[in-house]
Amino acid sequence: MLSTAKIVLMRRTLVCVGLSLALAVTACSTPHMISTDSKPTLAIKKNKAVLVIIRPKSASYSQFVIDNYLDGRMIGQTCGFSYFVVEVDPGMHYLTANAQNRHTAYLNFVAGRIYFLQQGIFPGGQAPTTRYIPLTFTEAKMQINEPKVVYLVNNTSNPAADMLAKDFDEEVKRYEKEVKENHNSHKSIREYHGYDRM
User: How many domains does the chain divide into?
Assistant: First the structure.
């Protein structure tokens, strides 16, 4: 017969194993991105715009990976509690997120400015839907500095594919039709100008 001390020890061990498994299950994991130990110091770039896409916690869909494209070119993926940073050439660019839906934003990126967008997550049946939400500098800083949020970089040994040209063309047409039919659609993104100082 097991002693009381051994039973208590076994229970504690099982609890620890359970917590470890829970952490492993909820950890951010993307197939084409890797997390780094340290978060970068965000800075303005003189000849480039800087785009930061932040995905905060989401209780139901934290493991669901969302692809992000700039003019159809893959720039990064997110899962719950993650963010990535990319430099963008100045000018007008289409930014597309691919979840259960596709959401596109059309922004004027200006050199010397930094843009913070939240990868919004919303219920969508078996998988989430997404849309970009402009963030203030204060909101972005708070989300990035949350202890569980990890910084992701592209995995150069396992790069993700770009959008198919026909899919990108279809998404641009859909976006332009949406804006033409409802001038107020995407207004908050279209009027978002980022920040020129940190």
Answer: 1
Q: Is residue 198 part of a domain?
A: no
pLDDT (tens digit per residue) in 131-160: 999 999 999 999 999 988 999 999 999 999
**Nearest Cα to 123, choosing from 101, 91, 92, 152?**
101
Q: What pTM was estimated for this model as a whole?
A: 0.84
- Cα distances (Å, whole numbers) of residue 73 to 1, 53, 58, 196: 64, 15, 26, 25
Whether 2 maps to a domain, the answer reads no
Calpha distance 56→80 (Å, rounded):
6
In a domain, 16, yes or no: no
Which one-letter DSSP state was computed for residue 135?
-
What is the tens place of the pLDDT at every residue in 13-53? Answer: 333 333 333 333 345 778 899 998 789 999 999 999 999 99
Instruction: Compute the distance between CA of residue 116 and CA of residue 102 in angstroms, rounded to an integer.
Output: 19
